[in-house]
Fold these 3 entries.
Entry 1:
Amino acid sequence: MGSETNERVLMGPGPSDVHPNVLREMAKPLLGHLDPAFLTVMNETMSLLRQVYQTENKLTLAMSGTGSAGMETVFVNLVEPGDKVVICVNGLFGQRMVDVASRCGATVIEVKAPWGEIIDITKVKTTLEQHPDVALVAVVHAETSTGVLQPLEQLSQIVHDYEALFVCDMVTSLGGVPTLIDERKIDAAYSGTQKCLSAPPGLAPVTFSERAVHKMEKRKTKVQSWYLDLSMIQNYWGEERSYHHTAPITMVYGLHESLRLIINEGLEQVFERHRHFGEALHKGLDQMGLKLLVQKEHRLPQLTSVLIPDGVDDVNVRKQLLTKYGIEIGGGLGELKGKVWRIGLMGFNAKQRNVTLFLAALQDVLATNSKA
Ligand SMILES: *Cc1c(COP(=O)(O)O)cnc(C)c1O
């Protein structure tokens, strides 16, 4: 652990800063994981999760683990060996879904787009025409490796025309942009606590439609992961309350408080706050003469990829932002390594102070790092 004076502003792709009220809740003494008082906290957490996910799905709960555990939960429970699945890949997290689905024994068909662009839905349509027996189509809603926001409405329609399940990675979207699970007929989604929910990494909220539940009930094979098997996890979060594994009690306190804060502020207000400060950041970067990776209409407000100007040392700039200003931002991943910086304005962090602080700090650091 660093010294007490290590002040940081976490403006990367996650983890983002934790709301002080969440930290305070997490300092409270433990309850047993079957204590009636803790069961009340769990019930409230499920209800708050439904509100923030914008769904009435009964099967909505938080898996133990980070966002990737949420991804794995969706695939291990919905995919049986031999199932054909279509995965849209326009960044690192799409690639990760391909890996996870293949490990479940799925036959994976990829629909690709260049990093920084959205998925072309006509390509998904053509793929489904060629493979009408596809069981599931998955896409990343908010691609944190690029800063792209994928439009979902028409894609969902196409997927349902072919009677496949529609799965969305909502790790960076939940609590930042509307997820509208029911309105968009999304059959399964997963998220994480460490992005726009302003809680530490450690839980993965998931939600499943009736159609998805039906597919799980019809399985011929056992879910290959014991830890992530929803047929057992449901019995702990649901009426039965039977022991499966010990819930990460403190993390549930944290998630409960972070969701409560979002509902208290108002979902629409929270989305508007992200939109407002995301735009302010985009405008500020533009005024500095910097170029953004993603074209305007497909930009995420909560995660911005800015191109590193020619002749500027990627690592040095990030190092100076951290040592001089305590600001953490992210570098590029995969094919964008060394080409972009990724700046997060997630949850609690989406505020004027951070926009102003970051723009001023970057200007200062760039002045000493540019060759020109
Ligand atoms: C962060 C992230 C993940 C993985 O979450 P972890 O908490 O790192 O396991 C998955 N998908 C997207 C879009 C993400 O941003």
Entry 2:
Amino acid sequence: MGVQLFKAKYEVEECLSEIRECLEVGWTGMGFKTVEFEEAWRQYTGLPYAHYLNSSTMGLYMAVDILKNEYGWQDGDEVITTPITFISTNHAIAKSNLKAVFADVDETFCLNPESVKEHITEKTRAVMYVGLGGNVGNYDEIVKICKENNLAFILDAAHMAGTRYKGKIPGREADVVIYSFQAVKNLPTADSGMICFKDGKLDEIVRKKAWLGINKDTYARTQNMGNYKWKYDVEYVGEKGHGNSVMASIGLVQLKYLDRDNAYRRTLCQWYRERLSAYPDKIKLVKIENGCESACHLFQILVEDRDSLIVALNQAGISPGVHYIANTDYKMYSYAKGTCQFADYVSKHTISLPLNLYMTFEDVEVICDEIVKFIVNK
Ligand SMILES: *Cc1c(COP(=O)(O)O)cnc(C)c1O
């Protein structure tokens, strides 16, 4: 079948027995395993709060919506963001009637702190930061800029499950961190995500807003017993956004193996780097900051003729990908087309090489052979 870009590897028997438990007790919904998974995630990350959702897209939408309402942002206020991301990141800003203001990326493929500074205006309220490929980029500098300018810091950590920076899981510095456990991410469940607010009051709000605004505690609390579960108040027009126990079952199992799996991803990336760094004129590697132990969600390189390389690799049975086309090239965000020079360069020249846990050293060798053959013949 050749070598695929992504292919999730599950602890099948363990996942099935965890799911079996849900089926046997007759509860697959919110609660039960979702609560266990939230607790396990808090333990793992050291973040104070975690609410389990049905996707990270939902998490991004809720994050921006809740910060806007609670911090008193107005329609048309600005959030500085990156063009090199999956579209959910920027839709979350637009969905809340805020303006996505695109700053450029640097050789880490994450936001360039200088460009972020240049885009700050009277109306800037937040920075939306994506740790692309699991890398932290210039994280500390972005945190500093947010503090100095009194901006909220939203961390789209969709690629960062398991990333460490200076020995710790990054995120305590952020107002909110959003993880994805979608089918191809480092901690795959099929579909789900986690939203981690710094402030417990906002965590309480997201628990209501992700369940249609229902405050299920109102009567249970005032009556001081569980008999009034059917009586609740509705405080918001919320979403149906919470996660379920079947997905959480998979998440609980996969979390146990996340560090082991990420370590193997780093090994694969190291093999790629060792081989491909021999061609610095033809192949540019993403810069990894000192102190970043990346989750290695992606292995990206830059080459001159990216599109032809993809065709050549496809012909050899290898399926690479592209992360990402600059979002400013899309109609929705074309008001900023051409404003981010390096992002546009990345958009045209980046290729994500296969990176999955089924791969061996030989697979990496075969892929590198094809790439070298391609660039030498050019
Ligand atoms: C996958 C991804 C998302 C969306 O995650 P879902 O869980 O599929 O909603 C958001 N941002 C980035 C950077 C992603 O890669």
Entry 3:
Amino acid sequence: MKELPSLNSPLLEGNLSPTLLLEAACKYQTPLYVYDFDRIEDFYQQFKLAFGGRKTLICYALKANSNLSVIAKLASLESGADCVSLGEIKRALMAGISKYKIIYSGVGKQDYEIKEALEIGVLFINTESNEELLRVEKIAQSLGISARISVRVNPDINPQTHPYISTGLKENKFGVSIEEAKKMYLYAHKSKYLEPVGIHFHIGSQITKLQPLIESSQKIAALLRSLLALKIEIKFFDIGGGIGVVYSDENLINPYDYAQEILNTLRGLDVTIICEPGRYLVGNCGVLLVKVLYEKAHLYKRFVIVDGAMNDLIRPSLYNAYHQILPLGDYQGQLSEADIVGPICESSDYLGKNIPLPPLKNGDLLAVLSSGAYGFSMASNYNTRGRAAEVAIQKGQISLIRKRETFEDLIALEKEFL
Ligand SMILES: *Cc1c(COP(=O)(O)O)cnc(C)c1O
């Protein structure tokens, strides 16, 4: 017999205590995303402190969780924003992040997005190809301005994470090679309409080993030194995001070690370090609450069917990602393994596989842990399911930060049909 796992977790403490979660679910129903805003603050401060003493700008990667209240919380802590669309830039501004703290990244920016980002005057545009650099130049010229840019350099380093969230290998679509980057900087340096101010890399997500990050930083710092020698005055060294969080029993990168190692690679250089943590700031600060609809057993298999599904949290279906799932409340009876599945008509619709759980009945609540990042922000309306409501808990106070979507919301853009 397997050892019985404990039915609690240090992640279910403070504002995410079972009592508060049950209260939130009772008030706002399920599926429900719940975030601990005090914990977000703690993670942010830890990160900030790790780089303390150095000129640093933390630019939260909005795509991890782009709820306006989450962004506003980070804005109140003086965070900047790493945005990958004009929509995200608008969210950042709306939530109170200054334009001077906004970076615009992404492999496929459209002309209207570049134009508006330039008009807004974001800190810089992170270009990901030579073509894009030329596009930015042309648009800047039409506006009669000089565009602050950086180049995303692909250091060709394996981040040792899931292939779908690896971005810094030469076979990935992101960034350009060191040789190409150098040419782009030389070109930008000569252009009247381009002002190279930053250098950037981001090698992947959910990274749990420091070595690939250090090696990338060394490679890019060497490039930076050669650019400075050519009098190309780069002021921002952007080390991207990617620091992992706890899903099961990962050994996490300590932000202090991370900061020290990065600083070592920059010895003697006077640059502002920009970090773009997404998952790290919010991943462990949220849970998805779902309600049990039925249990169903086949000869060899136990299924727990819940009201949350892959449209709410796609990470298990998309990356085969593991999330710990725990029942809330006191339970009796033998644990046995079950697949936690949703109502969607796809066999890949599951939240967990072979999860040890006690016998459950209709109405019981389950918490899907570590769902604060890439949870709601990747949610969809597949099967005409309204997206879940989102709730923040701060100092024990529960507040609704996004209403549950209604059927009316879902059809609002289709009102006039053929
Ligand atoms: C996604 C992304 C991030 C954030 O990644 P995390 O793994 O959530 O920290 C940072 N920078 C860029 C350019 C990204 O695309």
